[in-house]
Design goal:
The protein is built from 3 helices and 10 strands, in the order βαββββαβαββββ. It has 251 residues and is an alpha+beta fold. Strands 1-3-4-5-2-7-10-9-8-6 form a 10-stranded antiparallel β-sheet.
Length: 251
């Protein structure tokens, strides 16, 4: 997908495993406006993926790291609404799998997401997906392929920059900043700019370590309806994101 394009996400093929569950949008998931935040969405997607693996009898302690997340929003779920969530494996490679998820509510909210996960060892190096995983998820993935190449470039020289201090609570069991925690920085920039996201692509370029001195860089375009943002550490891009949306009044 080229920068600036709305993600096109595949539908469930009608065969293979599809896991369904539900949960409410809780207070800690919601922005001041009441909508589900991007970081909360990422956490929900991560948790539901683990619940699916546990339900399938697979080891949820087996480490996977997010490489890319794409989101398309028809209407955001809001605080107090109950989410119906369905998820399936939409593509599968030697060391990675793509998980497609749909979140809906009875009021008509709808969010589509796809996350590319890379299977790693405890040192963070990609390793082959196990045979049990392949047997479980190959039917829905079929021959579908999803590119693992990253498309979002580095920040331009004119991008604004500010420090983004890390907290101990940002770190996960692998000892680096969790993909959901990293999106708190993106939410902060969206709030400052008055933008409610309608589509987003987030690429996790390199892990953010606990001792990194992180900067949040941003560039706005399209009458401030499109945001490009980066988290950098030691002058290297660790996360890149592109978000398009609609202007919202301050909450």
């Amino acid at each position: 997908m080229a920068p600036g394009e709305t993600p096109r996400l595949v539908a469930f093929p009608g065969v293979g495993r599809r896991f369904e569950t539900s949960r409410p949008v809780r207070l800690g998931d919601a922005a001041p406006s009441g909508r589900l935040r991007l970081d909360a969405l990422a956490r929900i997607l991560q948790d539901v993926g683990a619940d699916d693996m546990a339900d399938a009898g697979l080891d949820v302690a087996d480490p996977w790291v997010a490489r890319r997340t794409q989101v398309v929003v028809d209407r955001w779920p809001r605080f107090g609404e109950r989410l119906t969530i369905s998820t399936f494996c939409s593509a599968l490679g030697a060391t990675w799998g793509e998980r497609r998820s749909t979140l809906t509510t009875s009021s008509g909210a709808s969010v589509e997401a796809a996350t590319l996960w890379v299977h790693v060892d405890l040192g963070g190096r990609p390793v082959a997906v196990g045979p049990d995983f392949v047997r479980c998820y190959r039917p829905s993935a079929g021959a579908q392929r999803s590119s693992t190449r990253l498309a979002l470039g580095p920040p331009p020289a004119e991008a604004e920059s500010r420090a983004w201090p890390l907290r101990a609570s940002d770190l996960d069991a692998l000892g680096h900043v969790n993909n959901a925690a990293a999106l708190a920085a993106l939410e902060d920039e969206l709030r400052r700019g008055g933008l409610e996201p309608r589509s987003a692509t987030v690429e996790y370029v390199r892990v953010i370590e606990a001792d990194d001195r992180v900067a949040l860089r941003s560039a706005w375009s399209g009458d401030r309806r499109r945001l490009r943002a980066w988290l950098t550490g030691r002058d290297e891009v660790r996360l890149a994101a592109e978000v398009a949306g609609v202007a919202v009044p301050p909450a």
